[in-house]
Specification:
The complex is a heterodimer of chains A (347) and B (324). Chain A has helices at residues 12-17, 22-47, 62-71, 85-91, 95-102, 136-150, 168-180, 227-242, 271-278, 282-293, 298-321; strands at residues 4-5, 77-79, 156-161, 184-190, 193-194, 197-198, 218-223, 248-253. Chain A has 347 residues and is α/β, with parallel strands linked by helices. In chain A, strand 7 (218-223), helix 8 and strand 8 (248-253) form a beta-alpha-beta unit. Chain B is built from eleven helices and 14 strands. The chains are: A alpha/beta (347), B alpha/beta (324).
Chain lengths: 347, 324
């Protein structure tokens, strides 16, 4: 059984049927711009020596991340990865906190305990990734299990990359989710390169989503540069899961437009490949769509651009005001106390 | 007060917690219809249903990782490994995810992983290990090793209540061998409080799990020789009752650290080092360690007997301490 390949989204009418009005569309565009801007700004800060460690971006994945996050319900949860900044932005994590996280400041979501996109915002339904991908998939399955046991009408989303699809966690998670028909949606960010490893050395089938059939649920491949198609597919899968229809595996096909991290110049990616995917840049693609299908005006575009610029400037200022964490507190906070359980997401 | 076996105490405690708290559920291989490899959850599925006593596929990673996810959403999972040895398949989810979650994200992970551990019945290299010290080295995890039915019940209730990932090592060789009085009502036992299993002032044996009983038999033999040995059962390794150990060292001045796990890097080394750092001047003899040799757990009874610390090994070391 060949996996379904999703059609692109066409008209404004089709988008409205999928549940998005014009304001939503401009909001999606803004989120995509913030996503890219925050990573571009971070890259500059990294080169200036203001960000310790390494620095990762998700350039090329903005539509996939924002499209999926836009489809999530307010009480849904997920475990986004280092190419999914757009999920954090869409769910409402404040940009200053993200920059504070990059800089190892107390104001970042992990208060300097962890870096880059290893962030948590449990009040927004987001739980922090670990580096051992795809270790967050079993966790997402467990979240879905909790919803199933309690009868909550909530859905968990678990992200992974095509590279980590080779690890056993992916198999165990999807198998258990399929056996129990849990309300979980698996999102594969297939950016075609696992560090320097191309897809043909990572898996021997055409699509990662082909595997869904082996676990007893649907798989779909979607163009990850088409934010509206990603949204439509994610929305359908999430609502299906919410209704008790079980898991779906959505593979968002993109190209990682930069190196694995900023130290990597990605010399191993053929130049023509970059050129081909640059021509379908997700943000430019959506901007063009908005202008021809939703009559986005020059004024609206300018306004969104200036809002994003101001947001980023304010964010940097506020992040720099945030203090470095106090080393005397390092050994506190390894173990939770009973009061720490008294949070909304633990109830 | 009813007298229960160690395994019955574990089973009763778990049932009591599940009746008391709807959030508690059990996840593991063969825990449902079959009632668990050792029958700890026998009859649970009839009482609590298939979703609270959930048979999982052979997927330790998904079981422990799934428990973490469910805990983050407010449930209190109790995951069962069929044997403690199989926790290696879920190492990543304890060490990488659960142990570091609160430190990074301030979201507690209240999970319990039940780990039938220990040797003594020719289980061989993959059904006999005591991997507690591997996990004691990981900040963020708690380690519980009950030695008696009373402690098994109280410590399981505390483990389920605790807001952190807890590894509950239940020693298989104690399951049906050890009986004791266990109150019917619910009670908890605080972590980090050692229990005096036997009183004495001439030497102290610091130990936990099945070795508490090995030490006890040895001490009984020496009592006839006028040498009274205190047996201190740590009950939990993380946190461990350092203050109580040091108090005993200062009083007895002779120390034997005993564990069933292998020697190098075993938790006994941490105890011995702490005594050397903080109570060196109170010692009348070098700290003695008895542990299993640094080999995999052997299968043949002849070899396993040589591997596991025996009563006579403890007697011999205590006699040497007495003579020092």
């Amino acid at each position: 059984m060949a996996v379904r390949e999703a059609e692109p989204v066409g008209s404004l009418q089709e988008v409205k049927e999928a549940g998005l009005d014009r304001e939503d569309l401009l909001g999606i565009y803004r989120h995509m711009l913030i996503t890219r801007a925050i990573e571009e700004r971070g890259h500059i800060l990294y080169r200036q020596g203001k960000i310790p460690g390494s620095f990762y971006t998700g350039r090329g994945n903005e539509a996939a991340a924002v499209g999926v996050a836009t489809a999530m319900g307010p009480n849904d949860v997920g475990t986004p990865l280092h190419r999914d900044m757009g999920v954090h932005i869409t769910r409402g994590v404040e940009p200053w906190r993200i920059i504070a996280q990059y800089m190892g400041r107390e104001g970042g979501p992990t208060r300097g305990r962890d870096g880059n996109v290893h962030m948590a915002a449990p009040e927004l339904g987001l739980h922090p990734m670990v580096s051992h991908l795809p270790a967050m998939l079993p966790v997402a399955v467990g979240m879905a299990l909790a919803f199933k046991i309690r009868g909550d009408r909530r859905v968990a989303l678990g992200w992974f990359g095509e590279g980590s699809a080779a690890r056993g966690d992916a198999h165990e998670s999807m198998n258990m989710a399929g056996v129990r028909q849990l309300p979980v949606v698996f999102i594969c960010d297939n950016n075609q390169w696992a560090y320097s490893t191309p897809t043909y050395l990572g898996y021997p089938i055409e699509h990662v989503a082909d595997r869904a059939a082996a676990y007893g649920f649907d798989g779909v491949v979607v163009d990850g540069t088409d934010v509206l198609a990603v949204y439509r597919e994610a929305k359908a899968a999430i609502e299906k899961a919410r209704q008790g229809g079980g898991p779906t595996l959505i593979e968002c096909l993109t190209l990682r437009m930069e190196g694995h991290a900023v130290h990597d110049d990605a010399f191993y990616v053929p130049k023509e490949m970059f050129e081909q995917w640059a021509a379908q840049d997700p943000i430019e693609r959506f901007r063009t769509w908005l202008r021809s299908n939703a009559d986005m005006t020059d004024d609206e575009e300018d306004q969104i651009t200036s809002v994003v610029k101001r947001l980023l400037n304010d964010a940097l200022e506020r992040a720099e005001e945030s203090p470095l964490p106090d080393p005397s507190g390092l050994e506190q906070g390894v173990y939770a106390s009973a009061e720490d359980l008294d949070t909304p997401h633990h109830k | 007060m009813p007298e229960l076996t160690y395994i019955q105490a574990i089973s009763d405690a778990l049932r009591q917690e599940m009746r008391r708290d709807q959030r508690v559920f059990v996840l593991g291989q063969d825990v449902g219809v079959y009632g668990g490899a050792f029958k700890v959850t026998l009859g649970f599925q009839e009482e609590f249903g298939p979703w609270r006593v959930m048979d999982a596929p052979l997927s330790e990673t998904a079981i422990v990782g799934g428990a973490t996810g469910a805990a983050l959403m407010g449930l209190r999972p109790v995951a069962e490994m069929q044997f403690a040895d199989f926790i290696s398949c879920a190492w990543d989810h304890l060490v990488t995810v659960a142990a570091k979650q609160f430190f990074r994200g301030r979201t507690p992970v209240p999970i319990v992983v039940r780990l039938p551990s220990g040797g003594g019945f020719s289980g061989g290299p993959f059904h006999s290990q005591n991997p507690e010290s591997s996990f004691a080295h990981i900040p963020g995890l708690k380690i519980v090793c009950p030695a008696t039915p009373h402690d098994a019940k109280g410590l399981l209730a505390t483990s389920i209540e605790d807001p952190n990932p807890v590894l509950y090592f239940e020693h298989k060789h104690l399951y049906r061998r050890i009986k004791g009085e266990v109150p019917e009502e619910r009670y908890t036992i605080p972590f980090g409080q050692a229990r005096v299993h036997r009183e004495g002032d001439d030497a102290v044996v610091v130990t936990w799990g099945a070795m508490v009983h090995t030490a006890s038999d040895a001490a009984d033999q020496l009592a006839g020789e006028g040498f009274e040995v205190e047996i201190l059962d740590l009950r939990t390794l993380i946190p461990w009752d350092k203050a109580r150990v040091l108090e005993s060292v200062r009083r007895c001045s002779k120390v034997l650290v005993l564990h069933e796990d292998t020697r190098t890097g075993g938790f006994g080394a941490e105890i011995a080092a702490t005594i050397a750092e903080e109570a060196f001047e109170d010692l009348d003899a070098p700290v003695v360690r008895i542990a299993a040799p640094d080999t995999p757990v052997p299968f043949s009874p002849a070899l396993e007997k040589a591997f596991l610390p025996q009563v006579e090994d403890v007697v011999k070391s205590l006699q040497e301490l007495a003579a020092y």
